[in-house]
Amino acid sequence: MHAPSLGVVWAGAAGAFATRNGEPCHVTDTADLDSALLATGFPYDRRTSPENNFDAFMALKLKSRGVRRCGSASMDLCLVADGTYDGYWERKLKPWDLAGGAAIVSGAGGRLSNFQGGPADVLSGYLVATNGALHDRLVEAIP
Fold first, then answer.
1. pLDDT for 47-70, tens place per residue?
2. Which domains are assigned to the chain?
C-alpha cells in the first residue's frame, strides 16, 4: 500500500511479515479500550442508510482515547499494522478496500474478524482489525 503524500509504503503477507518503508512493523500491545486510539470510516450512503456507522463512532469516541478518520480503509488498516492505531472497524466496504490492508495487519501480528468476532471475510464488507490484545473488547463495544 503506497501513501505518496506521507512518503510511506507498507507491504506484507498474511501471517508472515509486514513492513513500513522496508523496516519490519508490528501492532501495538494496548489491551484496554480506554487507552486505545481507533479508526473508522463511513459508507458512501451514510445520509440515507441506517447502517451509517454514526452510533458506533459516537459510542467508541466515549469509550476510547479517540477515533480518527483518514478516509482510506486500506491506509487505516496499515496504520493498525504499524502501531499508529490500536484498532479499526468499518461497514459496507468493497473487497479492494480491505484485502491488501488486511493482509498487512495479519502480517504485523494483528487480528481480524467480522463484527461478531468470527472469521474475517473481506467479501462481506464488515471488518474489525486490531492489535489482538483489545480485539474482543472492541467487538463487544461496537453497537
1. 888 788 999 999 999 999 999 999
2. 2-141 (3.40.190.80)
